[in-house]
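#structure-requests
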Amino acid sequence: MMEKKREMGIAHFARRIKQPRGIWVKMAFVVLLGLCFVFFWSFLSSSASTFNVQRESFDDIAEPVSARTKSAHQVSESSKLHERGKVESGLKSKEGKKVGGSVHKHETKKKKEHAVSHPHKKKDVPKPVVVEEVVVKEDQEHGEAESDDSESNKEDGEEVTESDGTEGESDGNADDSSASVDEEVEEKNEEVTVDEISKKRKRKGPVFDPKAEYIWRLCNTRSKHNYMPCIDNDGLIGRLQSYRHRERSCPKKPVMCLVPLPHDGYDPPVSWPESKSKIVYKNVAHPKLAAYIKKHNWVNDSGEYLTFPQNQTAFNGNVLQYLEFIQEMVPDIEWGKNVRIVLDIGCSESSFVAALLDKDVLTVSLGLKDDLVDLAQVALERGFPTLVSSLASRRLPFPSGVFDTIHCAACGIHWHSHGGKLLLEMNRILRPNGYFILSSNNDKIEDDEAMTALTASICWNILAHKTEEASEMGVRIYQKPESNDIYELRRKKNPPLCKDNENPDAAWYVPMKTCIHDIPSAIEQHGAEWPEEWPKRLETYPEWLTSKEKAIEDANRWNAMVNKSYLTGLGIDWLHIRNVMDMTAIYGGFAASLVKQNVWVMNVVPVHSPDTLPFIYERGLLGIYHDWCESFGTYPRSYDLLHADHLFSRLKNRCKQPTSIVVEMDRLTRPGGWVVVRDKVEILEPLEEILRSLHWEIRMTYAQDKEGMLCAQKTLWRP
């Protein structure tokens, strides 16, 4: 009987195999489906790996060695290369430095003092063991303020001699859910061992390989001549999805290809101040821009040029009347005196920025990554300070409490969505007693009610709510409170106050928080007092800055060098210089020395450097945090002059491919633009050869002892 059943089962199985859609077909389909899942999952998960090298805190900078890292220190003593360096650890959680070097405790709730150790990462998680060493001898003129520089956890790579035009990128949008990704990064970083770090530290040598030969190729990317590596979604999966990443996401490999020129070529940009009213069209040509121009009256196509009628705005009315209307509602605003630094959300048009410039107000426009018309590039071509960034779930790369005013005119942002996370980010970067100006001509009742409830929950006072007749824009002006007392009076503590260990200045790859940071109250905290009126604030040194003597010395030194050498001795025609970047700003002395010139300066404070950016804003200057191992958030051909003071010596062995920084400088600079580099001779000599391989013209080199300066000008050459 059992044998008969077994024979019947075998016969049934054989009949199933003979069927057209038999079991083997089904099994093959299941296997194929599984392989496809594994293949696509590998792409989607690869983007998260790009965050493995990001710092989760900067407590390891300029702090004593803890007991847990003494053994690693003893192992490395045989190198004898750290006579002036110190082995540092990330285990110290209570002590840090203020600007100027005095020690303070920045983990307490009431002492939110300004830490010199860079606060770009979250501090409410366990810190991995990080042993680092400063091996670069500091420049006698420049080194005192940055003696606390350190290396990052980035893996060191070998110098390559041939660039690739099709760089691999982080595919998919797995990195777009930033909160979960950042938590994953923290867990992965804790896996770093002392042995692994010791192996990395053994690799020493020149920043650039003096024997390397470079064969350059053009980038083969979806966005072509407007390629922004950390913003454009150009990976394999990305070509099937959105045009740009939801959040900043850089290629897995350093970009070593050159961005091509626009399809119709590139002409020298119109000089300032004429560029306020017209720019060369083909320099910013874009298919969607042409369609946009036909629907708007604030920009006109006159053939060779794009022209911008004076005081004309995207909405009805005159922009000067709009500014006067705002100041009439709130006289304390006082454009150009009480209000100096403004953040303009969105970049629909730049009439607001242009009008404020005439009033001595420095406004930076935040061009959102969803701007597929590339209006931010138009603003840069006109000579206005502009950044390109996402505004989704990560903090903006600014310190807390630095903007006098934040402006949003028909920017289309739902501030009340996602628990009010975006508005809470504005609250973080807005100065206490600062103003938030919201203008719109199509408020919905439900949006209006939600915004009213949200602003009340964070204790913003509505100073005015009127409609400007000429523009038909409803204008609301809110003011952030100046003390913490009002928070205690809230009936509902929602959103809650942030935890004691939440650092409000942490801004690099840090998720936005749905909480309210304490308002500074002690005199030694930055943001506790409103700065002096402009221009007095440029030369005012606040009480919380303990390194006043160094800041004054820095200002005097740069003022002397700029007047003696930069303005007259380098061959630079400053009449054609408008957009300037200081790639290694410390106290903003270089930017302050150019304040009387017709330029604006983007002060970049590298994430591995002491955090001096709040002081730069306190002086009435602009700035941003950035890691130069990654691409900067702006369009190609954005700047007329880049200034790099000891950038490469401070990044030694830190970036996977240091040559990619030179490629990024080539991307940022306009044809005809300039680069001025001050560094060690051993770095400048191979750097000069790299620039020559890029067909840059070397205009001047100077060396004294082991220090030197290089001045080069970019040409139109592309491979």
